[in-house]
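Fold this complex.
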Amino acid sequence: MSSLAAMPPKSFEVKPKLDESGTPIGELLEISMGPHHPSTHGVFRMDVVLDGETVVKLKPVFGYLHRNHEKIGENISYLASMPYTDRLDYFCSMTNNWAYALTVEKLAGLAVPERAEYIRVIMAELTRLQNHTCLIGFFLQDMGALGTPMMYAFREREKILDIFESVSGARMMCNYMRFGGVRVDVNDEWIAQTKKVVSDYSKFLDEFGTFLTENEIVLARTQFIGVMPKELAVNASITGPMLRAAGVNYDLRKVDKYGIYSRFNFQVPVGEHGDIYDRYMVRVLEMRESIKILEQALRDIPAGPVMDPKSKLRGFRPKPGEVYGRVEGPKGELGFYLISDGSPNPYRYRVRPPSFVNLTVLEDMCLGHRISDAVVILGSVDIVLGEVDR
Amino acid sequence: METLEQIKTRLGAALPLTKLDILPNECPAGERSLLVESDRAFDVAKFLRDDAQLKLDYCSNVTGIDWPEAKIKTKVKKMVLVEGAEKEVEETIETLRSGHLEVVYHLYSMELKHGPVILRMRTENRTDKTHLPSLTPLWRGAEFQEREIFDLYGVIFDGHPDLRRILMWDEFVGFPMRRDYVAPDDFEYEPTPHDEVLVEAKKHYPAEPKAEVKA
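Structure:
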């Protein structure tokens, strides 16, 4: 990184363009996009000021789904928060479970058995596959390809949700992981089913790639649009595929090596330009790497217990202290910060949601682009409002 | 990465007269944190970001914590003379902790891939002196998170470019994440009020009309 200079605060005063004599051409138009708008991926609002069709100011407004998740977490026991984490980013409940379980394990000093670690990796990578697949579907919908790509994406997602359902009983709100392991063991039949889905997945990605990767409309709508420079991405705490598309090689699976990620052979795709196309491409390549990890994990999974015998679910009271745990979720760094005062409830329960922080630079990316591009840029950020609003 | 003691020594040399404390952490992972005075916090943070050995260019997480006034009980072992012989007696000492709001920053380095350094600062009290310096001019990533702490805890960040409520609506009164926050009496959450909800709900019903007297 060449410069670490802070980005200057933005100026909030906007004025219409002036002609040669200095008189304004036309007027600025202020519109409120959302909260009920198909392109905003939930109840999200953008206050946009337009000069003609060009965005000159954009303020994200959210909080419509706010239920004070953190306060709820402070008032219930450690274990009772686990199903609530499913509802943060409802596409990736398995990763949310893992992030929370990992933090509590760090707080209480629990060890996770080998087999459970493998199961967790398999679940997290399957989650990444289905999240990125759905995102690409939604993203094309934002560009005007109504319905068809999303249906293909959802067809593949169904197969992964079936896998989740057969082991946890729920398709989306899995509530599967526990402190010190996972709730139930998987059987050989399940592993065979997962292996089949994983081996078929590359075919689907090839098919998707044929239609999209060099599609003329996709290229025209995404290349050099919504560019985010490297320095800004780091300074604004952007994480996940968005950060790597900007050219920063920072993946917590490689940096922190949490769980057993150090055992797998995989690469971290990094973009070059930081535009929307790079963000799309980084996600596609990440799915290919996830398939590699899944193949290795499904091949090597050992037999054994899936719960730490020391961990207890009822009457769990960790010693006083504080801990910050983080994992690489499909959307970026998902962190939990817990302070224990020795009671059955956490004194402070904080969630660091990736898509909430990634929204910081939405305005910077949209300025100077058309309003229709702002929709695609928002799509490429990959937000889930359950997590943004908490 | 350097230990927190080394960082503290170098900070003391670079920024003299800055009061720094290392706070212990007893949990197994044991990440200790650095408590700075709020009026020097900006300089300390700037040092941590720009220092060539640390390069903490990534502010991952910003957390607000409310510590209301409380009596803290600590047990101390004491030797007491009982009937001529010395005996060890456990005594409980109560100390009064003054209330304050605390903000915690988790700093990492993306370039050098290390961290975290945990930085904390505290307000003077919970009522009128709740100002802290904003670190958003150093890390844009703190922008929304500081707004959230302003919204839910009422910490006023001086120097923040756009300090507004973020999750609650602008007209909202109060700070819901504080420990002593009492939710407003929302009697309508139950479609068919019963038991204690009914008692609450009845407070909001219009007074019963008096029986009309026929003329």
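Chain A touches chain B through 49 residues (CB under 8 Å).
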